[in-house]
Design goal:
seven-stranded mixed beta sheet, Metallo-beta-lactamase, Chain A, 6 helices, alpha/beta, six-stranded mixed beta sheet, 15 strands
Length: about 220
């Protein structure tokens, strides 16, 4: 499994490509504290590799966060929660409902029987998640899904499938697209230009790069 590492202010971010849709799963370390974002693991070997990576840090997994309820971002959540029962598993309740609906999560369309079993702690806009020396502010953006979660720190953000390098997340209708674009503008592109953006698929980007080159803006 491919993984790349970047050093941000107060944190090390490891990006892992998992599952058939090459979903970005992120392991974040600040001090001895760890957070796993979007465990879209499908194969047992992916689970083993992620667990091994976590154990090799000698840190403690504090948080497991899913940005939204689509199967490629949540399919490994139950296994990770079982493996690390002391970690807080967190999702927006509206996204957890999607993850429990095989049609809404696209599990059915991908011929998967996955239904989220673990019960997450609720995430809400304005909430804060602290690991080590970093505090992430939780924001939500509608459009790609009902309430996709964005985690914002001082110099970087995890944006799920709301925004990609040069593009935006898929939407089902023009109204949802308008909501998504407006939410990206107000929540993400209002951050400092140098802010590093870690999306749910593809390469990282920055606020400045998207303002300069993304055709949607």
């Amino acid at each position: 499994m491919d993984h790349l590492q970047e050093t941000m202010a107060g944190a090390i971010v490891i990006r892992l490509s998992v599952g058939p849709l090459s979903t970005n799963c992120y392991l974040v370390q600040s001090g001895r504290d760890l957070m796993l974002v979007d465990p879209g693991l499908v194969l047992n070997r992916e689970l083993i590799e992620v667990v091994t990576l976590i154990e090799e840090t000698k840190g403690k997994l504090r948080w497991i966060v899913c940005t939204h309820g689509h199967i490629d971002h949540v399919s490994g959540a139950d296994a990770i929660v079982r493996q690390f029962p002391d970690a807080v598993f967190a999702m927006d309740p509206r996204e957890a409902a999607i993850a429990r609906d095989p049609s809404a999560s696209f599990a059915m369309q991908l011929r998967s029987s996955f239904v989220l079993q673990a019960v997450p702690s609720p995430l809400a806009a304005g909430q804060e998640i602290a690991i080590g020396t970093i505090t992430y502010r939780v924001a939500t953006i509608a459009g790609h899904t009902a309430a996709s979660t964005v985690l914002i720190a001082s110099d970087h953000a995890f944006v799920g499938d709301t925004l990609f390098a040069g593009s935006i997340g898929r939407t089902s209708d023009p109204a949802s697209c308008e909501l998504l674009v407006a939410g990206i503008r107000s929540t993400i592109l209002s951050l400092p230009p140098a802010t590093r953006l870690f999306p749910g698929h593809g390469m990282p980007t920055t606020v400045g790069q998207e303002l300069a080159t993304n055709p949607w803006f």
